[in-house]
Amino acid sequence: MIDLHGVHDDEELCTQMAIPVKKDIISSGFVPKAEKSMWTPIKNLTFLGTNIDTDKGVFTFPYNRIDKIMNTISDIDLCSANNGKVFVRKVASLVGQIISTSPDIGNIVVYLMTKHLYTDINSVHSWNSYTHLSVDSIDQINFCRFNLHEANVKPFKSDVSWQTFVYSDASNIGYIVENPYNIVH
């Protein structure tokens, strides 16, 4: 059950918790819009473009967003096949759509899926320009095309004890080591 603060198995407890939350929101000056507010517990909700499924304990993004990304990829394929160039706004639109999936599939994956596309976007001088997609950008588009459906699930909680990221700058002087428990500079 979604109780505006989190998730709980007990529907009755969620219902009881919703009452003071609603009162607090109203007493603090907010005016909830009746047609957009839900004060009864539910197990599935789409919130800010993300599906929240408390039965399975996962976040996903709606299939219509996947369809939109796939349609944009098809448009880019068509333009590229016809004249070898793609309108840079179309590539930027694809990057924006991929970035919008980051809450569900993770920031690192999104960064890796758009890195070379950004390079191609930044290589032009105007939004009204066309660009030739690099081989790396085409690889990233193909990665999205073939893997986005499988990447569309993120559990509420995950074991992050094994995760460590190391970042370094080009001068080999600065670095950051980050894990879920601390950051070392």
At the first level of CATH, what is the class of the largest domain?
Alpha Beta
CATH topology of the largest domain: Alpha-Beta Plaits
What count of structural domains?
A: 2
Low-confidence stretches: 1-5
Largest sheet entry: 4 strands, antiparallel
This entry's quaternary arrangement is single chain
Strand order of the largest sheet: 1-2-3-6
Structural class given helices, strands, pairing? alpha+beta
SSE string, helices as H and strands as E:
HEEEHEHHHEHEEEE
Using the 3D structure, state the CATH architecture of the largest domain.
2-Layer Sandwich
Give the helix proportion (percent range): 40-55%
Net shape = extended
What is the arithmetic mean of pLDDT?
Answer: 81
InterPro entries: Hepadnavirus_pol/RT
Secondary structure elements and pairings:
Elements: H1 11-27, E1 44-47, E2 50-53, E3 58-60, H2 63-83, E4 86-87, H3 88-99, H4 102-105, H5 107-122, E5 130-131, H6 135-147, E6 154-155, E7 165-168, E8 175-179, E9 182-184
Antiparallel strand pairs: 1-2, 2-3, 3-6, 4-5, 7-8, 8-9
Helix pairs in contact: 2-3, 3-5, 5-6
